[in-house]
């Protein structure tokens, strides 16, 4: 339970830090200016979209927290047999890191209105994300070939469950990433309103990918049994 609370605190801290960076605490009614002479740039819709993403991340973070909690409780029973983790998971983890880094560089390019940098960054993030999913499928195939099916071992069932749910979140993100890439290639150079909308889409995709990377690192540490000592400490504190 202590580990779950720590995980949720980390997720809440991440969401709070991100929301503060978006300027949601600003007071636009105190700014001086004439509304009629101001050019509309789409800024009014930005907090709405980012608040919506923050709400979705809170729900998704709660779902993964429940999965982690169930994982901790189930692994304490006698029939739990840890799985040999496929080596390909190391490569897929590196690919997810690369996609997150690529989207971070894309955000930098979007803030500088560098259209070529945005396009190349989105393509790099998409390719590395698809390669990550392919690596997950290879891990599934390797475990299935070794006889670790979902019904044979609770550890195997949890492995397929958590990786499948994370993969579904990744697929949903790839849909948004594909739409952002299509918008990037359709955006003409020098169009300020179009670049503002494109920048918003890139920032949302980057935030979502950073979230997916953070969740996967937590799941990866659980699957690799790096947290076994921490789990034993938490159990000792609760008894």
How would you describe what is shown here?
It is a single chain. With 239 residues, this protein is mainly alpha-helical. The protein has one domain: Four Helix Bundle (Hemerythrin (Met), subunit A). It is built from seven helices and no strands. α2 runs parallel beside α6 and α4 runs antiparallel to α5. The N terminus is likely disordered.
Assign the CATH class: Mainly Alpha
Quaternary status: single chain
Q: Sketch the topology as an H/E string, one letter per element.
A: HHHHHHH
Alpha-beta classification: mainly alpha
What is the makeup of the main sheet? none
Short description:
This protein is an all-alpha fold and 239 residues long. It has helices spanning 2-21, 46-74, 88-111, 115-145, 154-186, 192-223, 228-238. Helix 2 runs parallel beside helix 6.
Helix/strand layout:
Layout: H1 2-21, H2 46-74, H3 88-111, H4 115-145, H5 154-186, H6 192-223, H7 228-238
What key attributes describe this structure?
239 residues; 7 helices; 0% strand
């Amino acid at each position: 339970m202590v580990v779950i609370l720590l995980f949720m605190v980390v997720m809440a801290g991440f969401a709070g830090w991100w929301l503060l960076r978006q300027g949601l605490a600003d007071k636009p009614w105190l700014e001086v200016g004439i509304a009629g002479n101001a050019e509309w740039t789409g800024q009014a819709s930005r907090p709405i979209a980012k608040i919506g993403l923050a709400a979705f991340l809170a729900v998704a973070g709660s779902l993964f927290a429940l999965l982690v909690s169930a994982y901790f409780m189930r692994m304490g029973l006698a029939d739990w047999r840890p799985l040999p983790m496929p080596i390909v998971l190391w490569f897929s983890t590196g690919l997810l890191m690369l996609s997150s880094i690529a989207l971070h560089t894309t955000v930098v390019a979007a803030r500088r209105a560098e259209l070529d940098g945005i396009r190349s960054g989105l393509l790099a993030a998409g390719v590395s994300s698809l390669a990550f999913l392919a690596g997950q499928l290879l891990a599934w195939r390797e475990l299935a070939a070794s006889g670790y099916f979902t019904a044979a071992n609770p550890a195997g069932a949890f492995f397929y469950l958590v990786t499948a749910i994370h993969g579904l979140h990744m697929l949903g993100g790839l849909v948004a990433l594909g739409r952002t890439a299509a918008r990037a290639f359709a955006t003409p150079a020098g169009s300020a309103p179009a670049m503002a909308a494109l920048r918003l889409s890139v920032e949302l995709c980057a935030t979502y990918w950073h979230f997916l990377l953070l969740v996967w690192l937590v799941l990866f540490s659980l699957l690799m049994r790096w947290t076994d000592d921490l789990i034993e400490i938490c159990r000792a504190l609760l008894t």
